[in-house]
Amino acid sequence: MEVASPKIEHRSGISMVWVIPIITALVGGWLIVKTLSEQGSVATISFLTADGIEVGMTRIKYKNVNIGVIEGMQFSEDFSHVILSARFNQGMDSFLRRNTQFWVVRPQFSLSGISGLETIISGAYISVEPGQGAPQFHFVGLETPPVVLSETLGQQVVLIADKLGSIDVGSPVYYKGIQAGEVLAYELANDRESVYIHIFINDPFDQIVQGNTRFWNVSGMEVDLSANGVNVRTESVKSLIFGGIAFDSSETLEESTSDIQGLVYTLHNGYGDIDNNAYTKKINYVAYFGSSVRGLSPGAPVEFRGIQVGSVLDFRLEYDNEDESFLIPVLFEIEPERIVFRDIDGISESEDTITNLIDKGLRARLQSGSLITGQLYVELIMNPDAPLELVAANETVPEMPTVSSASIESITNSLEAFVSRLDTINLEDIGRELLGTLEGTNSLFNSPAIQASLDNLETSMESFKNILAAVDEASLDDTIGAGRDVLEKLRETLDLTNNILEPNSPMQYNVIQLTSELEETARSIRALVEILERNPQSLLFGREGDGDE
Predict the structure, then answer these.
(1) Torsions phi, psi of 189, nearest 5?
(2) Is residue 494 in a domain?
(3) Is the peptide bond before 204 cis (omega within 30 degrees of 0)?
(4) Would you say residue 83 has pLDDT above 90?
């Protein structure tokens, strides 16, 4: 039997065996492409330390929304920093700009308060503040969170100060006692002699800041003991502990601008230093006084008609061998910009203002600024009648003529005269005489004779009242008789009073005065009786002519 040979056929195409691997590869590739396409960009963030940061766990958040995660961590080449690899979600490339800021949110205590307490449970995370500019994929993170975010309405202001003092990042900025902003940062100026302080003023307080706005340090408590008295200023308890800055934009006679871009404001050490630093031009003068300057101190004001135009710098004691006298030269400065000339062309400043005023009678004298503190100040007055007498010719410092202070000298002379009179008075003799006078007065007024005199006087007045009440009922003769009886009793009272007074009694003068007054009363009563005799109806209708106008 013949066996048939197999027939072999060759098929073209791909074998079914490879279908499944190919499909698997396609699906895998699609998944890889899809995964890669759905992932966002990768950026690196540099920090000094990685405290609280964990790879794969630490999130990147903006307004508490997850926008990425930390997926890697390594050291820099010099091991000074930690470089974090941050994977951002798809569509978050807009955060990767040149001015974007990153910082780690941890529990933190600052002048603004306590923040980041939620990280105690959830762990630290990286917060981001979007910025503008070109795309960027490497950033240097902030070691401390920014005080003010970019979305906060307001305006930044730059201050310059001699020293930082108690001011720190987060220190409050006040306007009329209300917190209006915070301190953002500070840095040393290029001259290495001053400090730049960057502050942020919130809306709407930023609209108050003008070109003439004044800023001063309110850290601690400001105590001013001067010729104006004792002045204590403090802004708040918070500023006492953490420091602070206050500002004011009071209306002034000078015009101001609202465009403050590029302006750098001076931070004064205190409110009292504002006027001292407001004028830059200062001229020194010396005035010679011959009287005591007790109560005068450096820094005392120099005033003209109640307005401070300068301050005292120094003084000393000088002895003149020729006339053997003492003089006290007082060196003080005057700010001529405070005084202006008004003419037909308007108001103008002049460097020769003080010289012209001296020629017209400007003089200096010492005045008492406070009776409580005893502080003195220098007062400038216009006295055209005062002669222009200069004590010494000083080539370097011009001299201001002086006049004596009438008030201080009069008070001093009065006190000296009073003390001198007290020394000549024998107080013991005066005390003994006063005690004797009081004892005599007590015995006189408590004596039975005085009491009897008072009783008789009371009886006399009662009789006089009865006379007036009985005018309509009794006859005029009886009324006149009753009046005469009253006069007789008054005379008896006067005689009794004169009998009880001894010639050398200390109360004799007072009793004589009492007698004179009683006699005057008697004369008035006698005149009344005579009027009633002539015109009895006057008691009811008044004297003739009383009602006529």
Answers:
(1) -70, 165
(2) yes
(3) yes
(4) yes
- Is residue 11, in this structure, part of any structural domain at all? no
pTM: 0.45
**Are residues 475 and 379 located together in one domain of the fold?**
no
Residue 426 lies in a domain: no
Of 87, 93, 158, 165, nearest to 126 by C-alpha is 87
Residue 467: pLDDT over 50: yes
Same domain, 369 and 459: no
Tracing tokens 């502990």 back to the chain, one arrives at: 241
Tokens standing for residue 228: 């104006």
Considering the domain architecture, whether residues 405 and 441 belong to the same structural domain is answered as: no
Does 252 fall in a domain? Answer: yes
Q: Which domain holds residue 82?
A: 39-140
Strand partners, 381: 363
Task: Answer yes or no: is pLDDT of 409 > 60.
Answer: no
Domain boundary among 349, 383, 414: 414
Contact 378, 330 (CB under 8 A): yes
| Token digits of residue 526 | 């006698």
What backbone torsions phi and psi does residue 93 show, to the nearest 5 degrees?
A: -65, -20
What CA–CA distances, in Å, run from 247 to 180, 250, 338, 500?
10, 10, 23, 82
Please name the helix (run of DSSP H) or strand (run of DSSP E) that holds residue 489, with its range, or none: helix 476-500
- Same domain as 160, residue 243: yes
Are 195 and 160 in contact by the 8 Å Cβ rule? The answer is yes
Task: Please give the angle made by the CA atoms of 184, 188 and 193, to the nearest 5 degrees.
Answer: 135
* Nearest by Cα to 286 from 316, 309, 306: 316
Q: What Rg, from alpha-carbon coordinates, does the chain have?
A: 50
In 3D, which of 397, 328, 387 has the Cα closest to residue 358? 387
Q: Are residues 245 and 295 in the same domain?
A: no
Domain count, the chain: 4
Residues 128 and 195 in one domain: no
In this predicted model, what pLDDT tens digit does every residue of 276-322 receive, in sequence order?
666 667 888 888 888 888 888 888 889 988 888 888 999 988 887 87
* Strand 264-268 with 307-315, pairing: unpaired
Q: What is the pLDDT of residue 46?
A: 93
Q: Read off the pLDDT of residues 325-343 as tens digits, 9 standing for 90 and up.
A: 888 899 998 887 777 666 6
Q: What's the CATH code of the domain at 477?
A: 1.20.58
How many Å from the N-terminal Cα to the C-terminal Cα in the chain? Answer: 184
Residue with the two structure tokens 């004179």: 516
Please report the pLDDT score of residue 139 as a whole number.
93
Helix 476-500 / helix 508-534 crossing angle, nearest 10 deg: 170
The confidence score (pLDDT) of residue 549 equals: 41
For tokens 């307005």, what's the residue?
A: 307
